[in-house]
Amino acid sequence: MPKVFVTYKIPEVGLKLLCERYEVEVNLEDRFLSSEEITRRANDADALVTLLADKIDRHVIETLQRVKIIANYAVGFDNIDIEAAKEKGIVVTNTPGVLTDATADLAIALLLAVTRRIVEADEFVREGKFTSWKPELFLGPSLQGKQLGIVGLGRIGTAVAIRAKAFGMRVVYYKKRRLSEEEENRLGVSYMDLDELLSSSDFISLHVPFTSETHHLIDEKRINMMKPTAVLINTARGAVVDEKALIEALIDRRIWGAGLDVYEFEPRVPEKLKALDNVVLLPHIGSATVETREKMAIMVAENVIAVLEGKEPPNRVV
Ligand code: DGY
Q: In this structure, how many other beta carbons lie within 10 angstroms of the beta carbon of residue 66?
């Protein structure tokens, strides 16, 4: 019977589909495995289910003996050396589509949390400081009529654009390949080159995948282009932003604030960032709705089943 090794427990619905067909070994410890542990425990496995915290580099891939598919429990797959997998003929799959709405919701939630100072205000109430309604208590910028710059207008960026329109925002976007005029009109968005978008937007939300091209796409020079009232939201990948430069800009109040769900050296969050009151910090929960995480688990299982049955998986990356 084929064997599937799962590096960390995923929702039961997905595991059940796998357990009905295969021998399944799941790491049930609440910790991520080292590369050595993954290669050892997946040594006799035909399929490997990974999380984005698992670094599946060339060395791991070359060491895998029988694995035919690496099914990543995420839409992003920057944790896997795709070239190495391709060379070894191992299929890699991801979970696109099902987390679009959840992640877009979270980007908007972060934007509201930063602009309306929700975390600070909550602490204020808990600390017993709420003594009376005051005209200038916890003021922040409104969203209505402001310009939202979306960097990367794929599935999630588009879903953010749709939400932003409902809040009365003007939406501009930057994307490597510009949309057709018809698509732009349909979504009600306008194209800008990246630097123009950064310097003219009130709020900026990042939705590009992490690649060598997008590493530090938002570097010190580009952060300095932003308005002093700008708010930066990142629900994509931490290293798209030069985190050190962002922290300096937030400390110097060169931008108004930031909402971050992801970090450059995740899960490490710099102490300097935690000390700031103009940033809202989340633990990479963009896709964390019950429904989404269950759908992701089902997709992972479907991808594994397809490959182990000799069929084309629904979500092949390579
Ligand atoms: C992904 O899927 O890439 C997200 O970052 C986690 O759901």
A: 13
- Ligand 1 atom at shortest distance from the alpha carbon of 235: 5
Whether the predicted model's global pTM rises above the 0.90 cut = yes
The answer to whether the beta carbons of residues 164 and 157 sit under 8 Å apart is no
CATH number of 3-96+290-308: 3.40.50.720
Which residues participate in catalysis according to the annotation?
A: 237, 266, 284
Write the residue with the smallest CA distance to atom 2 of ligand 1: 74
Domain ranges in the chain are 3-96+290-308, 100-281
Q: Which residue has the tokens 């530090």?
A: 216
Residue ranges around ligand 1 (CB below 6 Å): 52, 74-76, 99, 286-287
**From atom 6 of ligand 1, which residue's Cα is the shortest distance away?**
74
Rounded to an integer, what distance in angstroms lies between the CA atom of residue 286 and that of residue 293?
Answer: 10
Alpha carbon distances (Å) from 308 to 3, 20, 68, 250: 10, 13, 8, 49
Q: Residue ranges of the chain with pLDDT lower than 50?
A: none
Distance separating alpha carbons of residues 119 and 32, to the nearest angstrom? 30
CATH fold of the domain at 100-281:
Rossmann fold (3.40.50)
